[in-house]
């Protein structure tokens, strides 16, 4: 850990030059031993920064509430917590911990730095998995589903996710093989350069997650993940999406998929997904695809959630996916799907048809058609200010109201299925009841936010 003097001014045409206060900050690079970052200083991640690793195993990085950590753009600053080590970033609603771009307010953009990667020793259904682009490679996963990789609570991660090497991207928050001893709650990612949250296997539970204006998928779940995610918010910016296809939920088993592997079988409950279209005829980036994209034998359980404003509804890309839901291996229940072009897509070579998927969905969920969005929102109990609409990237409502006190989303949730044990029971569908849990700690204009001690 070294001290670095950083200039407090820059040429307006040089957006790679950071403006950080105070004039002297702490540079973090290489491998970190056990230490604490305090809120009276500011920190800069330079290159790939490892908590623990081959030279210092079982280390703990503790971050005080209210601390700001910047990611360096030139060196693709990235924080990697290796298996056996811990990140204790335990913020508060009054003093959230912020990981953000080192560029000045107004100049920040997606992909300014590499993001946060937390790795553990819980089960993963792939052999010797490693996070793409990390050098040296860090193998994660093991046999301990109760593994503890630390705490992320009241944490914001902004403008993260970048191509470290060709075709190898990081996400805002990447979690690989983290166990149920890990705490992830009240976390917001904003303007990510790839996925907002990606879970590669593991059994970690998470709640109160905000995926705000990300580039690719909001919740990407793979490699045999078996944890539970409850209370998640997805808000999409209509002007950009990934060429790979951007979805709210994308779920997969992984590239090495065979019948002997355990399935991706976790639970997503109480998700509110606000897609890119605020009205049915709004022009959005053509790379937007589905509210839910289910791939390669996945058996993820999606319940008590609402999806609105995506171009298409659900895709199942293999017959094995359809079979998992049709036989009850996995469930889709008590969800509400509202889309301009309500379609149910199938992969090539499947026996099941789009009509079959539509029938399966209709048995235990609600599909709402129609083009009168204001009337639909009112009937659901949602406020129209939750959409980006035609606003610019800095034009979103600074204090949106997500609370639902009336309408069809205020009731209808169910937690009787055995797969939903240990979840918090709610009467409402979606992420919100009468309380808007984003108030006080979330930030909806991070591009213009000024951070100073």
Task: Please tell me about this protein's structure.
The chain is mostly beta strands and 453 residues long. 6% of the residues lie in helices and 31% in strands.
Gyration radius, rounded: 21 Å
Alpha-carbon distance between the termini?
Answer: 20 Å
For the largest beta-sheet, the strand count, sense and barrel status come to: 18 strands, mixed
What is the number of strand segments? 31
Overall pLDDT metric? 91
Percent of residues in helices: under 10%
Strand residue percentage: 25-35%
Q: Based on helices, strands and strand pairing, what is the structural class?
A: mainly beta
- Shape, please? globular
Can I get a quick summary?
By secondary structure, the chain is mostly beta strands. The protein has helices at residues 319-326, 354-364, 373-380, and strands at 2-5, 24-28, 31-32, 35-37, 42-45, 48-51, 60-63, 68-71, 78-81, 86-90, 97-101, 115-119, 150-158, 163-165, 168-169, 173-176, 183-190, 197-200, 205-212, 219-222, 228-235, 249-251, 267-274, 290-294, 301-303, 306-310, 312-316, 332-333, 336-339, 344-346, 366-368.
Layout of SSEs?
Blueprint (H helix, E strand, L loop, with lengths): L1 E4 L18 E5 L2 E2 L2 E3 L4 E4 L2 E4 L8 E4 L4 E4 L6 E4 L4 E5 L6 E5 L13 E5 L30 E9 L4 E3 L2 E2 L3 E4 L6 E8 L6 E4 L4 E8 L6 E4 L5 E8 L13 E3 L15 E8 L15 E5 L6 E3 L2 E5 L1 E5 L2 H8 L5 E2 L2 E4 L4 E3 L7 H11 L1 E3 L4 H8 L73
Parallel strand pairs: 2-5, 3-6, 4-7, 5-8, 6-9, 7-10, 8-11, 9-12, 10-13, 11-13, 12-16, 13-17, 16-18, 17-19, 18-20, 19-21, 20-22, 21-23, 22-24, 23-25, 23-26, 24-27, 25-28, 26-29, 27-30, 29-31
Antiparallel strand pairs: 1-2, 14-15
